[in-house]
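We were asked to recover a plausible sequence for a given structure. The inputs and outputs are reproduced exactly as logged, with field labels preserved.

PROBLEM: sequence recovery
POSITIONS: 78
GIVEN STRUCTURE:
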């Protein structure tokens, strides 16, 4: 399984802007809250599968989540 380092601020800010708890996002990812917390503070890296789920959940581009762009909206999907 491949892992990507993510800028934790973006994931945290998206969660806070959506008024969600770490526990709620952990449920979306089907992981424990403490695992998600480690993702969010940058202690652990996200698996690509979690990155995809987060992008779909927040309707954000993966490029935004990994810091390649400052535009959060995803490209048009076909």
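RECOVERED SEQUENCE:
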């Amino acid at each position: 399984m491949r892992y990507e380092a993510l800028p934790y601020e973006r994931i945290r800010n998206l969660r806070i802007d959506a008024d969600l708890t770490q526990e709620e996002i952990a449920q979306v990812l089907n992981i424990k809250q403490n695992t998600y917390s480690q993702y969010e503070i940058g202690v652990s890296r996200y698996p690509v599968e979690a990155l995809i789920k987060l992008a779909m959940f927040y309707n954000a581009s993966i490029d935004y989540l990994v810091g390649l762009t400052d535009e959060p909206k995803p490209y048009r999907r076909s």
